[in-house]
Amino acid sequence: MVITFVGAIIAAIGLVLMVSAKVPGLLWLMMACSLFGGSAALLLPALGGASVPPVHFALLFMAGRLFLPGSGQHGAIVGAARANVFFALYAAYAVATAMISPRIFAGQLDVVPMRFKYLRWIYETSPLAFTPQNITVSVYLIGTLLIAMAAFITVRQRDASLRFVQVGVVVAWAHILFGLAGVAFKGTAYDLFVDLVRNASYGQLDQSIGQIVRINGVFPEPSSYASYGFIWFVFLFECWFRDVLPRRTGITAAAMALVLFFSTSTTAYLGLGAYSAVLFVRFLLLPASLPVRKGLVMAASALVCVTAVSGVFFLLPEFASTFWHLLLRMTVEKQDSESGLQRTFWAAVGLKAFVTSYGLGVGPGSFRSSSLFAAMLGSVGVAGTMLFLAHLGRVVKPLRHSTFFASSGGRALTTPERIGAAASWTVAAILIPASLIGVSCDPGSDFALFSGVALALRAGRARAGAQTERADGEGSDLPDADLAGWRLSGGYSPQPGLDRAPGTIPA
Q1: Rounded Cα gap, residues 290 and 296, in angstroms
Q2: What is the H or E stretch that residue 412 is in?
Q3: Which domain holds residue 188?
């Protein structure tokens, strides 16, 4: 095991936060570490050159703070485990199949290995066998569960839910600036910094088509950069829609949308297109859920964007022609490209594994896929997929009134409840890029982060983040009576429904 300079920096900060008993601070550290998707904190030569990403390395310090004797968090851990019970069962089942299934079905089908030294052609396969990657993905799944529990525990603390949004705005702007800097300073000394930070053992791709440099920031490739940016765009847009720090979240979401549009990533275009379609259907079926003021702002923003893009294309016709050609190549022509054919083949391997294993799955880490759902079916089969869907339903709560409206049971939602609803929509949106680029059945740290937030803030009438005044002057989101009740009760009660009046609809 070799610690990198990235890991050394994280260790120094993590130790300080762990010793100073700053649980929220450790979550903010993990959120900052998630920006460095192409970095490695630890290198593990014994596991075939595997590496530990920064966010999972930072998780070690969070786990130490929560689980060590004397932490005072044992009761909170039990509550977090109960809330994430379906995902805990999913992770346990996945780890069991990762250890057993590759040995049972060894040699019965050819798969695309998770790691390969040489890729001689796009349909490269090898016989199914137990590999170190079965262990690696199992560890990642356990880490995903712990991230969800850590997020659940953290945002239920006083003011932590609103702080989560504020930190999210900073993370989103950092992601935007990393992407723009990579394009603006391409070919300069800035490339040395990027190469230094992107020290993981993944395939690090710097792509350009003609004179257009594709945006990938400090992520391994444009698709992973766009996927991460899309996640934060959805969360901040949903927060703006629900009037959670609307000035900050609205401007940041608009900036992120523009960067995604010019990222030339298929993942970005399909993500934005699918989410726009969901919004259209959502407001079409439930028009009362769209406030007139928000609708006018969205329409005006769309008009401004169309006008601005048209103006750029009119003034720069050569750029317009190149960009349009690139847009076609990354969307309608993508399926027939070498990359598209390869990804289709990888997804088909997962379905073949599902059939060959009679619906049991051949174990996480046994093969590389290009879709979370194909990987899930092929890895953990019917039982694991049903556990994941049960967890997803518990997070998203598609039948709850507060999922679509700003009030429930005759009362306005509190700020934490609105943040929880925004996180729920983000979890659903994460599945859009994951269904296109997911390499294994691990939904990832971002899924865990937002699912933990959603479960924590929508379990009951979550008021932990309530505050009488906001630093940016946007005012309180709670009526005085609600704030008074929160003060008299001594804060937020973690038991679902404890502070809800009889007969009211759960939020």
Answers
A1: 10
A2: strand 411-412
A3: 2-488
Q: Is residue 493 part of a domain?
A: no
Q: Which helix (H) or strand (E) is 126 found in, with range?
A: strand 126-127
Q: Which long-range contacts (CB under 8 A, 24 or more apart) does 313-319 make?
A: none
Q: How big is the chain, counted in residues? A: 507
**Residues sharing a CB contact under 8 Å with residue 421, sequence separation 6 or more, in sequence order:** 238, 242, 402, 403, 413, 454, 458
Beta bridge partners of 52: 42
Domain assignment present for residue 501? The answer is no
User: The tokens of 140 are what?
Assistant: 């990642």
Give the CA angle between residues 32, 34, 36 to the nearest 5°: 95
- Examine residue 494 and state whether it is found in any structural domain, yes or no: no
Number of domains in the chain: 1
Task: Give domain status of residue 503, yes or no.
Answer: no
Strand partners, 127: 110
* Distance, CA of 32 to CA of 55 (rounded, Å): 8
Please give the radius of gyration of the chain, using alpha carbons only, rounded to the nearest integer. Answer: 23
pLDDT along the chain (507 residues), means of 10: 88 90 88 90 74 91 84 84 96 95 91 74 82 91 95 91 96 95 84 83 55 79 90 96 94 94 85 92 90 89 82 73 67 63 84 92 91 93 96 93 79 89 96 88 94 88 39 36 33 36 38
Please indicate, yes or no, whether the overall pTM of this predicted structure exceeds 0.90: no
C-alpha dist (Å) from residue 395 to 149, 264, 390, 495: 13, 31, 9, 16
- CA distances (Å), 361 to each of 131, 322, 380, 386, 444, in order? 16, 44, 4, 13, 19
C-alpha 286/C-alpha 299 separation (Å) is 18
Separation CA 162–CA 165 (nearest Å): 5
Tokens describing residue 394: 């518990």
Phi/psi of residue 51, each to 5°? -130, 155
Residue (of 92, 88, 93, 90) closest to 152 by Cα position: 88
